[in-house]
Amino acid sequence: MPPSGEMQEKECSLLTSYDVYLFRQGKHFRLYEKLGSHAMDAGGERGVYFAVWAPNARRVSVIGDFNSWDPSIHPMRLHDNGSGIWEAFIPGVKVGALYKYSILPKNSDLKLEKSDPFAFLWELPPRTASVVWDASYSWRDSQWMANRRQHNSLTAPILAYEVHLGSWRSGAVGKGRWPTYRELADGLSGYVKDTGYTHVELMPVMEHPFYGSWGYQVTGYFAPTSRFGSPADFKYFVERLHRAGIGVILDWVPSHFPTDPHGLAFFDGSCLYEYSDRRKRFHPDWKSNIFDYKKSEVRSFLISNALFWLDRYHADGLRVDAVASMLYLDYSRKKGEWLPNEYGGKENLEAISFLRLLNEVVYGAYPDTQMIAEESTAWPMVSRPIYVGGLGFGMKWNMGWMHDVLEYMSKDPLYRKYHHDQITFSIWYAFAENFMLSLSHDEVVYGKGSMLRKMPGDRWMQFANLRLLYGYMYGHPGKKTLFMGNDFGQTDEWSHEGFLDWGLLDQPLHGGLRRWVRDLNAAYRREHALYDLDFSPRGFEWVDAKDWEKSIISFIRKSADGSEKILVVCNFTPIPRTEYRLGVPCGGTWREILNSDIQDYGGGGYGNMGKVEASTIASHGRPFSVSLTLPPLGVLFLKHVDEQKGEPLHEPQ
User: Fold this and answer.
1) Domain spanning 537-645 has what CATH number?
2) For the chain, where do the domains classified as CATH 2.60.40.10 start and end?
3) Could you tell me which CATH class the domain 6-131 is placed in?
4) Which pLDDT tens digit goes with each residue over 567-623?
5) Catalytic residues
6) Which end of the chain is more exposed for a tag (fewer CB within 10 A), N or C?
7) Are β-strands 565-571 and 634-641 bridged in parallel, bridged antiparallel, or unpaired?
8) Are 291 and 302 in contact (CB under 8 A)?
9) What does pTM read for this prediction?
10) Residues forming CATH 2.60.40.1180 domain(s) in the chain
11) How far apart are CA 114 and CA 129, in angstroms?
């Protein structure tokens, strides 16, 4: 039964007047400590405190397996101060109890049953009840947390391995079973560490009713999906990766939410979390609702959620999904289907303000993390500070580079010379943002084919092209992201209903591709010239961007102090080139630290016997030059070394 007496109810409240003030101002960023369900002692009794925001309700009750889902047994009390928050303390309710909120809207005969927006755990889909949960956990990743700034810094080598947890690998028990967080913790950390990635990026783990949404249709914003285990299991997963020296980036979706009747949509019978005008509310691409970014309480909800994953789950960053859809009021809409802003423009001023506040709060609370925008347009200064007019993100996915390079690589090499600008154009804007180069899940679904099958030619050419693509990607300025399966040449395009074909690694060309990616990762992490100045033009200079006739490009990457230089040469045709002369800034030895055509990777063995000596023949405006053998459909990385210092040759691992 509910507690009796006004004094007892007030003593059971977790809300203070200051909480209410911050909430209504859009500045309460730890709402998960106040709203939702919390096991606690009150008045000498153990039970659960419930609190939910439903300002347009005339009655709210807690229903659950502890009261036979009867809304008459545990009505909630409306908190004062005009917060619109209902609360109740129910003695005897235990951790693990199932519950929802029964809501009777004002001016309506509707009877709604809603899951808790702040629940820490939900039932296993397709069931939709919230679960009372004790969120405590004894973390054992203090060493990573104390030093993670150096791993997450913009000047650090960042190599993200994008993963869909449900389809990475089958569970250990039962054919075709989903893996558990704990199974994934050991298997994934071992694979990622061995292959040399610095981070994993997880497609959304937040609870979602439709598995086919890949997690991008979120209903349980404060709960990891129960498909793979409990919140404690997911914390173990993060901890295990951290203890292996691997960062964890989470995909986060503040752009829209599904219209499932148990979720946020029309939560209290009104447009509470979403815009009221359909021209701003309805997302035509995903048939979902858009958050009302102007509403203070919604801002508090979303920013609290961002901090929640950084706070309670030790995430190292958030990759913010579909930022472009937030910025533009006319996104995917025809004339007459969108509502202009107050100045008549198409920019969503409320979303812009929200994103700036979000990044300001996140970096203020967790300066050793990263906020990464998936923004697919030319919106200016996405990854520039707020104080200079930017949106305040740390990095932005380079969608333009991705589209150009995949279109170029898909062409028959015979015709690439007519499209040379597609492989060189990205450098013109490479430093306009802090770019992350990404070959993500979006490029290997919906009939687009796997990364391997995008490549033209016979089997040998497909693998050579893919090794060349990855080599060019790692030489190009910017941090890197590869989707699972891309690194060993998954044959079929990705399906969330299946699992990666790990048996392919037993085949020489697939195993060789994976060794190539491993060695690329090792070189990128080892060589300062490849990552120090990913976001500065000081770290890049063309040697020759104009050899369109032979489809060859060459450039130099430099370390921050200028002492290390790496020459990258890409031959985009299947014709080997001998005595190919390129100008270099230094005389002496240039060692071949990477060659995509060595036999261990599945290549033909063309190369330069490990090193070349620069001559005093001037070329390309430089006083020295090297004469190279370029492998067909291959890429070379040559590092200038000082032989007198005895600098070691780094062999492929």
Assistant:
1) 2.60.40.1180
2) 6-131
3) mainly beta
4) 999 999 999 999 999 999 999 999 999 999 999 999 999 999 999 999 999 999 999
5) 321, 374
6) N
7) antiparallel
8) yes
9) 0.95
10) 537-645
11) 8
